[in-house]
Amino acid sequence: MTTTKSVQFSRDADVSTLRRSETDTAEDAVPDDWPLSRDAMRQPQPKRRESSVRRLKEAAKSMLPAPLFLSLLHHKEIGRYPNLLRPTTFNEKILQKNLRPDPWFVKLTDKLTVREYVAKKLGEEHVIPLLSVPDVFTREVFNALPDAFVMKANHGSSYVEVVRNKSATSFEELRDLADYWLSLDFYKIARERHYRKIKPRIFFEQLLLDSSGKIPADYKLHCFGGRSGRPIIYILVISDRFGGNTRGDVYDVDWNHLDVAIGYYKRSPIPAPQPENLDAILRAATRLCEDFDYVRVDLYAPDNLVYFGELTFTPGAGVLPFTPDSVDYEWGKLVPETFCR
Length: 341
Description:
By secondary structure, this protein is of the alpha+beta class. Helices cover 29% and strands 16% of the residues. The protein is built from eleven helices and eleven strands. It has helices at 24-29, 52-63, 66-78, 90-99, 105-109, 114-122, 139-144, 171-183, 187-190, 278-289, 326-334, and strands at 130-132, 149-153, 160-163, 202-205, 218-224, 232-239, 247-251, 261-262, 294-300, 307-312, 322-323. Residues 1-48 have low confidence and may be disordered.
């Protein structure tokens, strides 16, 4: 095992007082459509007639300097203004990388071009098989797809549509959703600069199912200090992501169920059984994080197999709520100072 035992959170650390009373100016400075969950962006939104006042507000937001925009967004979501000059919390350090991404972020954030990197690191067998990467999504492309598949876009988060039975949907429905995704400038949502250079594409993958026919849980491994060869890893497990009982549970590498919530996911009342291939999951994450000071490695592990999901260098765009809030500070200490250079 190349991972170290995770550090313990300070349970009795004071939770920062959250200021929720914001001025109208601050509220107007952040996107009105900023979702509580990025899955909210999966569905096409109906076009609406915008008033001249709203158009002026949107134009004003687009002209805000990125540091000011991010500071207001952080205050809205986290409840305090960030220190971008001397970042100490996890979110503050992620915000800084939004503004100054490393050159390799573009290729490794693009959900298509990252596949080559992962195949070299782990092996082609750990990359979900591609079905199609069309220049244009046409009816012919749709007709050639199998009965079950997943449609994704490469240039943002939560652009995922699971199709279990092609006869239950239509080409027109999927084309409209694809066109909606392609119309979105993901950079404008939270000013993650590396997304500006990703050319939007639609692609189709094989649908992963476990032996019981269920979509496997999403293992999101936050990896700190990967360059050292002995990263500290915490595992966020998202279960029933596309169902009606979605949960998000945080474990350390010994599969201790931590009293921590990330984002707006609810914790499970009872921890999930430790996966039989936990060591294989950790080995894969350790291999994929070894070139970085911090990265979140997303994996799937159905039936003792391990498949790659994505690499994320700026999770939650630096406005990711933690419960307790002290975790934001604890994780900030785990991010090496070299990450922010």
